[in-house]
Amino acid sequence: MTESPAVPNDVARVLAEALPFIQRFAGATFVVKYGGNAMVEQELTRSFARDIVLLKCVGMNPVVVHGGGPQIGEWLARIGKKSEFVGGMRVTDEETMEVVEMVLGGLVNKAIVSHINRAGGRAVGLTGKDGNLLTARKLLMPAVSGGGGNDSGDGDGNGEMLDLGLVGEVAEVDTTLLDHLVAGDCIPVIAPIGFSPDGRGYNINSDLVAGKVAEAMRAAKLILLTNTPGLLDENGATVSEMNLAQAAAMRAAGTISGGMLPKVQCALDAVRGGVAAATIADGRVEHATLLEVFTEAGSGTMIRPG
Fold first, then answer.
1. pTM above 0.85?
2. pLDDT averaged over the chain?
3. Where are the domains of the chain?
4. Hey, what CATH topology would domain 27-304 get?
């Protein structure tokens, strides 16, 4: 009789550890915001696609919301247009919005769909206009005075509001089409473009879209893939888990700042809105999504209600 090859103990342990999570989350919805290094490094792109397909194969319902800021910047540079940002938001005039729709709704969205489908999934690309998915309204940002570099919009701007052009926020999410796709064993892939009732397109921050979609779908988890290991405490160590009060306290104390502020606010809003948990995970780690869903240690920082 031929001897069976030995299975490494660490592989067997990981497989065994995954079982209770597969049982717990059968039929659950996970909204994953895909961006950062995971979008531009080929091996990370392939591993992300396999992760999403695996979630679907074991009975979970992944929904992907993607970014694409670097790709937009690249195409704007090709036409000789300089990117301008205020508080982390891209100032978006009519010409820039045309590029945003072309890049996010076309090139980036279809590339992600293709990767997932090649990995064995059935992905369907969408923008907010499809099925009236994302109704948007203009986003006005509070002005920040004093040059302090506060990207949160919390500074003293004497009540002045900044108009960034066709930059929007989510007014409403209609999940009818998403529900049909999920029930039909498909994986929705959403470009963060919203539309007003009169058909005007708006450029919306992808973290904000992911959070609002997670709320509307009563997701079991929101996962925000980023280029950091998670939230760091005052000593620079990653905080693995915290509740809403602790996260809000870190934000108020200034421990959370810069580009992490909108991600944390998105996570806080989603959990307050009914999402069971939100995780800011390191997208530079291969299979970060699987580590977050199927292991006790998880990946990055998880924020829970209490």
1. yes
2. 87
3. 27-304
4. Carbamate kinase (3.40.1160)
